[in-house]
Amino acid sequence: MSALSTLPFLKPVHLRSPRRSPAGQRRHTLPASEFRCLSPEDAASVFEIEREAFISVSGDCPLHLDEIRHFLNLCPELSLGWFEEGRLVAFIIGSLWDQDRLSQAALTLHKPQGSAVHIHVLAVHRTVRQQGKGSILMWRYLQYLRCLPFARRALLMCEPFLVPFYHKCGFEALGPCEVTVGELAFVEMQHPVRGHAFMRRNSGC
């Protein structure tokens, strides 16, 4: 069982449509909004959103399709997808890292003994951008991480123009990241994750 399903504030939200069929019978519809961990079967939908979101801006994607499948096979519990009517509209993919700062190896490795969650990518489908979905999904993801006993902090790297967005999400800048992708340079940011015992006493974990 995924850790996600045991957390009250991250259980899938099943809001069903009130529409009825012409005969007056309630239709069987998909949940209007659902949050859940991703699986390798979601990889193609993830890559479709990511490719459109990043290639137009930076010319490349944080994760290619084979890398998405790699992380969703190794650590699906560190991912979170937002689905509306069964369609993926936003997602986060993370893995574990075991050093103070990110290095080039962090782009492809998952360190099971690590205590830092490296957030590789957050992306929102183009049809639902500018609606605050990225901020909401990040908030839910960080709440989820706070109930994982091994997670102590979240790390990410972003281009400078995204620093204000992540700052509003509670991240602090650590300075230039040593990781480079082509000519792109990044700022490394972190968010502390409170201990499992504290959260168990204070949030029902």
TrEMBL record:
GO terms for molecular function: aralkylamine N-acetyltransferase activity. Keywords: Acyltransferase, Biological rhythms, Cytoplasm, Melatonin biosynthesis, Phosphoprotein, Transferase. GO terms for biological process: circadian rhythm; melatonin biosynthetic process; response to light stimulus. Pathway: Aromatic compound metabolism; melatonin biosynthesis; melatonin from serotonin: step 1/2. CDD domains: NAT_SF. The gene is Aanat. It catalyses: a 2-arylethylamine + acetyl-CoA = an N-acetyl-2-arylethylamine + CoA + H(+). Its main location: cytoplasm. It holds the Pfam family Acetyltransf_1. One of its GO terms (cellular component) is cytoplasm. Residues 33-194 form the N-acetyltransferase domain. This is Serotonin N-acetyltransferase. Belongs to the acetyltransferase family. AANAT subfamily. It is found in: Cytoplasm. Its EC number is 2.3.1.87.
